[in-house]
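chain below, 556 aa
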Amino acid sequence: PVMFLPGTNPYLDPVTVSAEQNYMLSILDRFKNVPYLSWDLINEPSFSSPRHLWKGNTPNEDMAESRAWHSWLREKYADPNALAAAWSQPEDQVTSFDSIPLPSQNDLLFNLEAGHAGQERALDYNLFAQEMFSNWVKTMVATIRSTGSKQLIDVGQDEGGVMNRVLNQFYAQAGLSFTTNHTYRQNSALLWDSLVAKAPGIPNIVGETGYQPIILPNGDWHFDEVTGASLIERKWAYGFAAGTSGALSWDWAREIYFGIKRGDGSNKIWEDTMRDMGEFAKKAEPYAVSFIRPEVAIVLPESLQLSVFNHLALEAQQNCVRALYGYARSQAYAVGEDQIALLGSPKLIILPSPWVLNQQTWTALVEKVKEGAILLVSGRFDEDPHFHPTNRPGEIGISYVPGQLFTRNNEIEWPEGRAELTYSGEKTDFLERAALPDSRNFVEKPIGKGKILFSALPLELNENLEAVGQIYSYALKVADVKRIYSSSMKNAGIMICPTQFPHATLYVLASEADQRDVSFRDERSGRQVSGQLLPGRAALLVIGDDGDMLASYNWK
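prediction:
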C-alpha cells in the first residue's frame, strides 16, 4: 500500500501521530485565525486496518496496536484470571496479558454455525477501538487548540458512527465542537440516523448525504436526478429532526451521482430544494436559541451493538424509533449505555431489547427509577456484557427464568391491550426470552418513586411494531409524558418529528406512505395544522407559542 506518513498505525503509533501533528501545524500556523473555517479531523474513519475500510472495526495487527491492546486489557481486567472468566477460557490458556493476540476475523463476525467462545472478545476489541480513537481525537483537538485556534472541530463520520465502527456516542466527548453523520445507506431508518448520531450536549449535523447508486444486474439505475429527488429532500429534512442542526450536500461540482450540477454545468433540480430549505432555516433561526430536551430517553444497548450480535442491536434501535415516533406519536433523545452519566432526568426511559448490559448502567437506571422515572425494558436484561448471567432481576423483585425464544408467534397482554408478536427468520434459532411466573409476558414493578415496566419478550425484535407502539403509548401514560402534538392519523408512514424551542416548535414531516392528508394539533398553541404531503416528500414547519406559522418549507 502507498504510505503517506511514517510509522505503522494512524491512531496508535507515536511516530505516525507526531507526523500527523506536524502536518496539521504546518497548515494551522497560517489559517488558525480564518473565520468560518472548520477542521474535519478525518473523513469516515475506520479502526484500524486500511485493508478493511467501512467494514467494522478490524485489527491492523501492527506492533503499536498489539502493545496498546495488551495495555488496555491489563488496565481493564488487572488479573489474567478475570479475563479468562470474561472470555469463558480456561485459566491455563490466559497466563499473561501480553500473550493475548488481537482478535481474528472469525472472532468479530456473527456466524450461527461457527460460534465459539473467542467471539466474546469482539466486545472488548470494539470497546478498545472506541477508546483508542477517542484518545486520538483528544490529541488532535489539543494540537489545534495549542495554536490558539478557536475554530470548530469535527470528525466527518458516516453511518459507521451509529452502526459498527467508531461511534459518535463515544468520541463526541473528546473535545469536538460537533459530530456528523453521512446518511447514505439507511434509507428506511433516516430518523434513527439523526437521533442516535446526536450525543447529549453536542450538536450534530447530517454532514454529507445523497442517494447512493442502486444499479440492477441489467445496468438500470433505481435512482437518478429525478427519481432520487424526494429521497434527498427527506434526508436533508431529517437533518433538522431530533435536535440535529442541519444538513450538507456532498458535492457542489459536476458529478453524476452526488454533484449539485450536471455534466454540462447546469443546475440539478436539487438546487431549488436546497435554496428553499436555506430560506426556511433563515426564518427559523431566531427561534432556535436553545433546545428543550424531550421527556423520553432511549438508552442504546451498546454492549449488544459492539458484540457479534450487532445486527440485533441495530434492529432493536431502529424499530424502537419507528414505533415511538410513527405509532406512539412521541419523541426522544438517545444516550449510549456507556455514556449513561449523560442521561439526565427523563420521565420515561426505554431500553430496547438489551439482552446484555454492563452493571454500571443498570445500577444508574435503577437509581433513576427510585427517583421517579419509568423504565420500560424488554427481553433478557440479566446477562453481563460477555453473556454471563447475573441476579439483576431477582435483586429488583422480578424473578424470571431465561430460555430460548423458540415460538414464532407469541401473545402479550398489558393493562390496556393485547397483541401478537411475531419473530420470523432465524430469530427462533438464537433469540432468548424471559419466562415469568404464571405464563405472564408483562409485569410492572414499583421501585422507590418510580416503576419498571417489563416485557418478557424482546419487543423491538418482533415484526408487529404497531403493538410496540401501543405498549409505548401505555408507558408514556404511566410516565405522564406531556404530548408535544396529537393526531388521529393511523398511518405510521407519516413521520412527525417535533423539536421544542423556548417559544416555538419545529416540525419535520416526512412521508413514507401513499397517504397525502396530514393533520395534527400543536398542543402548546392549540393550533390545528392540516395540509397535504405528497408520497416520499418532506415538509418543515415552525409554529410559535401563539399558533403563528413562523416559517415553512413545502407546506401550504
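The longest strand covers residues 504-511. The two ends are 56 Å apart (CA to CA).
thats it, cya
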